[in-house]
Design brief:
This is DMT family transporter. With 295 residues, this protein is mostly helical. 75% of the residues lie in helices and 0% in strands. The chain contains 13 helices and no strands.
Length: 295
């Protein structure tokens, strides 16, 4: 891939506020999925396709840009969308075998994979102090779910699926960084959501799951998943890829285990241990130091 230059660009809003909004939004994902009784692959496909439906009325504003997309960009969009759809399929399938905390903790390895990939693709080097901050944050994120790790029975299957889903989303993030240098966040997000959603839809048809026969409560959850963690989470992170390195955006996603734990305490009456509280503080310190080093 062509090397991407890091240019000085500014935003109207402080990046820290935008990152907080994105982290809070994606933290609702696990809560909404837990409330749904639909199959995991149905939740994933409907989440993406409902998002596409919501975004489509505004697509006419970006039609001139759509017509300028070349063949090479379409190939990257295809791989990015397939990676995102595969991430959702593997991650939500992992929850059938292992716990939410365990699966989410494994996903915290994403910044490491993105950092290595960004070095080979963009020649983006990360300082030693930033790497140390990354390890501190990852340690904190994994400690949040450590007490819920299970190695007996079929739990290892869920852990493997979660690891593969982490690799898939890392590829999606690196491709997104490349495409966002010449493509708007709206157009990029619309295409990858459409491709990922159609992949999952085909999977559901092959499995034989019902596509439409779900009650109003389930469709409300699909809608909330589309609006909160997807539009205010993934789309926002896709937008930030133009202003931040892919590794830094991936580091911000580490806040999801902490946010999900707090929301589970408030909405699901789940308990928070002192170890989890200390781990959350460790995670925030690590992410903060990393972003400061990479600024």
């Amino acid at each position: 891939m062509q090397q991407v230059e890091r240019t000085a660009v500014t935003t109207r809003f402080p990046v820290s506020i935008l990152l907080f909004i994105g982290i809070l939004a994606i933290s609702f994902s696990a809560i909404l999925v837990k409330w749904s009784a639909a199959p995991a692959s149905i939740i994933a496909s409907h989440r993406l396709l409902v998002t596409v439906i919501i975004m489509s009325p505004l697509l006419y504003k970006f039609w001139p840009e759509m017509k300028k997309i070349n063949g090479a960009s379409y190939i990257k969009l295809m791989w990015s969308g397939l990676s995102l759809g595969l991430h959702f399929l593997l991650w939500m399938s992992s929850l059938r075998y292992t716990s939410v905390a365990s699966s989410t903790a494994i996903l915290t390895l994403e910044p490491v994979v993105v950092m290595v990939g960004s070095y080979f693709v963009f020649r983006h080097k990360t300082s030693f102090s930033a790497i140390m901050a990354m390890l501190v944050a990852i340690l904190g994120a994994m400690m949040i779910g450590w007490g819920d790790f299970r190695f007996a029975g079929d739990a290892w299957i869920g852990d493997v699926l979660s690891f593969l889903s982490m690799v898939a989303v890392a590829i999606h993030m690196i491709l997104g960084k490349s495409l966002r240098t010449h493509m708007s966040a709206f157009v990029y997000s619309w295409w990858v959501f459409l491709i990922g959603g159609l992949l999952l839809l085909i999977y559901n048809l092959i499995i034989g799951y019902s596509i439409f026969q779900y009650d109003a409560n389930e469709w409300l959850l699909f809608l909330l998943l589309a609006i909160i963690p997807t539009l205010f989470g993934h789309v926002l992170f896709n937008w930030l890829l133009k202003y931040m390195s892919a590794t830094t955006v991936s580091m911000s996603v580490l806040g999801e285990p902490l946010g999900a734990t707090i929301l589970a305490y408030l909405l699901l009456n789940e308990t928070i241990t002192w170890i989890q509280a200390g781990a959350g503080l460790l995670l925030l310190i690590g992410v903060g130091l990393f972003i400061k080093q990479e600024k």
